[in-house]
Write a structure and sequence with these properties.
Helices cover 13% and strands 43% of the residues. By secondary structure, it is mainly β. Helix 1 (2-20) runs antiparallel to helix 4. The protein is elongated and about 80 Å long. The two termini are 13 Å apart.
Length: 359
């Protein structure tokens, strides 16, 4: 009789919530999977970049050669300048780049970046792309580069690229510096850096041994017009907590049977993370620290039938904690009812405590 009364109380609470929220409509009877609430979109787990501190503009009029082809000994490099009024730290670079000509859609070259001091007497950078005077070159494989296709014209393709530098680079105040960005791969296709005609500071310069353009030649002397390059520089992100864990595993199971789930989170600062899991039946597990974004499998055995809310959060080695993620699991007795209650428990985790009390 007590169990029946408890069940009626639970049903009353559940249907009260159904009337007060449209969340239940997200459940589809033909789909046993229920939305994982409070979880980050997996696409957001790409490298996170900091605040833009130098914006040279990301609009583009086209692409200008920026490529080293070792097989043909073809080279063409571009540099553009930037300036900070205060000391700055740079950890990330964005730029517009792309490919054109034969096999342009299959272009997947590695890209390199170098930084230069300014030769104030000559108004150009000191150094060569492979021997820059300030920092680099830094090589990034195609896989390491974050990318977004912006436009496919039918004979050329434009990307927004962005990378995390392997180290934080410090720049002094009231000094001008230069940057060059180029692809490394064999023609075809041809690769280029996006340019625009809005000049910030000074127009871009070119250099090429293949075409006998001295390092560094004004762009107007080669292209017939002045131009600037499309790029941005950003500072390191501050301390951030991990993302809420992504939980994946069974939605149903039998009592006294081991069930397993994977938990996955990413710390935007790259710190090691641990997971704290409340299984909803009074049991709590805490893992050791693991590398950010590495999935961790944990198993648990429920001794009684019921509907449970697995509540988990990630904590990094600096003590910052993520928001909680909630995952519904039913150990069937009232199977049909449990299907509808799972989603409610994920949305209103307080119900899990009520359910435990009624047990």
């Amino acid at each position: 009789m007590k169990k029946i009364s408890s069940l009626l109380v639970l049903i009353f609470i559940a249907f009260s919530l159904i009337l007060s929220t449209i969340v239940v409509t997200a459940y589809q009877e033909n789909n046993n999977s229920i939305i994982n609430l409070n979880l980050c979109d997996e696409s957001s787990l790409l490298g996170t970049l900091g605040t833009i501190v130098w914006d040279n503009g990301m609009d583009y009029s086209g692409l200008i050669y920026s490529q080293w082809d070792e097989n043909k000994q073809f080279d063409f490099y571009i540099v553009d300048d930037f300036y900070f009024e205060e000391e700055a730290e740079i950890s990330d670079v964005y730029w517009i780049g792309g490919y054109w000509g034969q096999n342009y859609e299959s272009g997947n070259f590695d890209w390199s970046i170098s930084f230069y001091y300014d030769n104030t007497s000559e108004g150009k950078p000191d150094g060569h792309p492979y021997s820059p005077s300030f920092a680099g070159p830094y090589l990034f494989t195609w896989i390491e580069i974050n990318k977004e296709i912006l436009y496919n014209s039918g004979n050329s393709i434009y990307y927004k690229f962005w990378i995390n530098l392997p180290e934080i680079i410090k720049f002094e105040a009231n000094k001008k510096y230069w940057i060059s960005i180029w692809a490394e791969g064999s023609y075809p296709p041809q690769s280029g850096w996006g340019y625009h005609k809005s000049i910030l500071l000074n127009a871009s310069l070119l250099g090429s041994d293949y075409f006998s353009f001295p390092f560094w030649t004004p762009g107007i002397d080669v292209q017939g017009f002045d131009f600037d390059m499309a790029f941005q520089l950003s500072e390191p992100i501050g301390p951030l907590p991990p993302n809420p864990p992504y939980i994946e595993g069974p939605r149903e199971g039998r009592a006294k049977t081991k069930l397993c789930w994977t938990f996955q989170s990413e710390d935007m600062n790259g710190d090691a993370i641990k997971y704290v899991i409340n299984w909803g039946d009074g049991s709590i597990n805490e893992t050791d620290y693991n590398s950010s974004y590495d999935p961790i499998e944990l198993c648990h055995t429920y001794s009684k039938n019921g509907v449970y809310a697995i509540i988990a959060y990630a904590e990094d080695e600096t003590g910052l904690k993520s928001n909680e993620s909630t995952f519904g699991i039913s150990i069937p007795r009232y199977r049909e009812l449990n299907k509808y209650l799972q989603l409610i428990f994920e949305q209103f985790s307080m119900l899990n405590r009520i359910l435990n009390f009624l047990r």
